[in-house]
């Protein structure tokens, strides 16, 4: 299957340029990859779409105080500006990935980009809390549709291991550094213009990505809805994931041990268990369970949940530390995150593919996690009157470990994908990322808040109490990274064998 247009050439009825002769182990409609220029242009388009989605996940963070003041959000309702997006995005990734396999990944990508861009306009002009939350939910739906199939398209575009490693490195950089860039851009736009522009910025990016994708990506026919339209499985997994994400993001408000949290969590687990049973018996499963037979696929997804949980919570809490304790403004705190984006880019784009080819995926994941662990341990000791150069910059530079680990994890997470289920494997990998992010933010923020409240009750000053709360959260984040490090060392193969 080809995803990009190639230059038309004369052909006979039985001969097509770049056609791979059918064989017993080949898809009859698959073509060899098109020319390098077309493939890398396609990768750039996919990265642009992913950048827009990732930016919107973090760009809102630094604008929340301005949004609350302008639209009159109550403090509990303000969290739904983030939660509405997370619930739709995390809940629909797996379903969107499978439907991309069935109806065509290009069609799903274009529909997602279009919906996301339209929802961004709705958010930008929103004049009430209800309209903004609705727009954010629709953004999450469009983001899930576009991002769920992106990795599957890259796997098809770059079948050769070394080139695939480079492509995944570029895509991983966009995903990782895009979050930091979103903080920078969100702070600058909110302070220099208004919070509305954090959504309007998506309009030119979405329009350009949509037009270029429509012209560049060749339609893939997909397997057809009759090949795997498991309506029951789709309903179970979508309801289970949405309810699970909702339970996690509300746990901080309801309490982790409250009857509401435990009841909703049990229902989400029951729905997901029902989905697994359905997949084991269905003739055309939505998520083939054979994917999990691979140690590297299962291990990569489990490690990613822990790593993203620690780092997403860190990303939000370190900005709060800079603003509430050190007194940074929105723009300054965003710019303070810029070194992390730079080092992630240098490592993931410049070195990760070559290092992975030489030392193997497990070495890269373990090395990256070790760097991240060191950074979070440093952050767990940050003082009330902290210095950026001494206390924060070394932590930002330690995020180079993310640039080492995430491309290798992505390659392992997609290693079990076949031509027919690359979309669902991509959706699964993105789903574990979103679940990790929601879990980490809810857990670490709850711990920081409860610890801060306790310290305030003992007579500590507000800055000291806040810092103490962040210390606990960063220490727990370091513990999550440590568990991921043990899993990487014990479950990942020393060197993944590629077909």
TrEMBL record:
Gene3D superfamilies registered for this protein in UniProt: MFS general substrate transporter like domains (1.20.1250.20), Multidrug resistance protein D (1.20.1720.10)
Domain Major facilitator superfamily (MFS) profile: residue ranges: 42-496
Polar residues composition-biased segments: 1-19
Pfam families xref list: MFS_1
Keyword match Hydrolase: no
Keywords, in A-Z order: Antibiotic resistance, Cell membrane, Membrane, Transmembrane, Transmembrane helix, Transport
Transmembrane stretches, start-end: 40-66, 78-96, 108-127, 133-158, 170-189, 195-218, 230-249, 255-277, 298-322, 334-351, 363-380, 392-412, 424-448, 468-492
Record has Acetylation as a keyword: no
Bias kind Basic and acidic residues: ranges: 24-35
Domain of life: Bacteria
Record's subcellular location: Cell membrane
Region described as Disordered: spans on this chain: 1-35
Protein's membrane topology: Multi-pass membrane protein
Protein name: MFS transporter
Organism expressing this protein natively: Streptomyces fildesensis
